[in-house]
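Write out the 3D structure for:
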Amino acid sequence: MTPLRIAIIGGGHLGRIHARIAAGLDEVTLVAVADPVAESRDAAAAVGQTRAVSDYRELIGEIEAAIIATPTSTHHTIGAELLSSGIPLLIEKPLATHTAAADDLVNLARKQGLVLQVGHVERFNPALAWVASEVRDPKYIEATRTSGYSFRSTDIGAVLDMMIHDLDIVLALARSTVREVQALGISVLGGHEDMATARLTFASGLVANLTASRVSHQQRRTMNIFTSRAGASIDFASQQATIFKPRDDVLRRRFGVDQLTAGERAHLKDHLFTELLVQSEHQPTKINAIEEEQCDFVAAIRTGKTPRVDGAAGRDAVAVAGMILASIDDHAWDGSPAGRHGPLSMPALPIIPAADRWQEDVPPRRRAG
């Protein structure tokens, strides 16, 4: 079969990764990398052993598909133009900065009959795949995603940059609508939230607590999922997972802790995860999830099947992210409508009063109550 002619739009960090991987796939011909910044496009093109162009529009008519790895604020403009030109797309997460833009891309792809896939790469993590059948109808999920500041994706905050991964997974597992959102966030280094926490309540009864930080000294990508019959822990970074299932008498509420002898208590204390909450671990052969994602994109175009993370799923994640961001903006840090709101919570008062000649450079902020 003739390889699919693909271009990478965006020569930054993710663009270079996509270029390197696409160049190594037998089913793909990497036509070019497009980026308006010469240094970026040349570096990505060198990695992908292909040519560099400054304007992605030059490639319309020459390519059969494209991967968009540009800043999120440009996804809608570039995506809409390429979809209108009949080009299937894999757009890096998040699909767009807000729901209306995401809806527009989804509707345009449907109208054109084109594949629209979103780069929620954790859906291809083998640890998630291993636990999926055991965590249907989840009732409680907690997820933590933290890292240091990368100085990338500064056009969005931690919710759209990081938490969006876990939002997508939670929505895929929940298969239910969000009824309530409570959230708060703090901006540390820029105009967007760099730390955020959110509590989501679903119509199904599921409660999900999500935490994200891109100013942490710890690197964590973990999720714990609990159902009525089992639980699972996932480490996305190591691609390892653990499932635990309560013994039948524990599930049926027939296990009496108070009836145990001292000897039985001592024994079960040392054998909790082998006899009561029976644990099994999965340490898979590691895979390159972005490569799997690209292969899924090509297969969707070739066969007409729905990609694992289609545009509708990407749109739903953006919609719930918008609810979280609205809750962050509404949060009152001083317990007063006149006090500080939203992620720009620091400082409560100026530490050093600014001179009058500096005032015009200071962004407006709500006065402390």
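The chain has two domains: 4-120+300-307, 123-282.
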